[in-house]
């Protein structure tokens, strides 16, 4: 799992049956200071109703064709992050 920030939406007019009814978000992985990391951006399936600029918890899992593809799924909207420095 990783922390990411919602930076956009993905619009798909046609989706496979498994994704129908799902929203797709553009997410960027966050560094230790909760800042987006350049060139670490993916599309993710939104399972929790996240919106623009939300910090989210994302998991990576094997997707429809487990031998060829991986998918990202938003599984939580993060309220706060506490860290011992």
What this model shows, in words?
By secondary structure, the protein is an all-beta fold. Helices cover 0% and strands 52% of the residues. The chain has strands at 2-10, 23-30, 36-46, 55-62, 70-77. A five-stranded mixed β-barrel has the order 1-2-3-5-4. The mean pLDDT is 87. Keywords: Bacterial microcompartment. Belongs to the CcmL/EutN family. One of its GO terms (cellular component) is bacterial microcompartment. It comes from Candidatus Pantoea gossypiicola. InterPro entries: EutN_CcmL, EutN_CcmL_sf.
Shape: globular
- Using the CA coordinates, give the radius of gyration: 13 Å
* Class inferred from helices and paired strands: mainly beta
- Tally of individual helices: 0
Q: Return residue spans where pLDDT drops below 50 for at least 5 consecutive residues.
A: none
* Strand line-up in the sheet with most strands: 1-2-3-5-4
* Percent range for β-strand residues: over 45%
Helix and strand pattern:
EEEEE
Mean pLDDT across every amino acid position: 87
Largest sheet at a glance? 5 strands, mixed, barrel
Euclidean distance between termini CA atoms: 21 Å
Q: Approximately how much helix is present in the residues?
A: under 10%
Instruction: Tell me the number of strands.
Output: 5
Subcellular location: Bacterial microcompartment
InterPro entries: EutN_CcmL, EutN_CcmL_sf
GO cellular component, one term: bacterial microcompartment
Keywords: Bacterial microcompartment
């Amino acid at each position: 799992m990783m922390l990411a920030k919602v930076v956009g939406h993905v619009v798909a007019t046609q989706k496979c049956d498994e994704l129908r009814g799902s929203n797709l978000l553009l997410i960027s992985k966050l560094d230790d200071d909760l800042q987006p990391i350049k060139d670490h951006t993916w599309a993710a399936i939104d399972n929790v109703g996240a919106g623009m600029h939300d910090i989210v918890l994302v998991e990576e899992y094997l997707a429809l064709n487990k031998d060829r593809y991986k998918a990202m799924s938003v599984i939580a909207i993060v309220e706060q992050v506490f860290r011992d420095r």
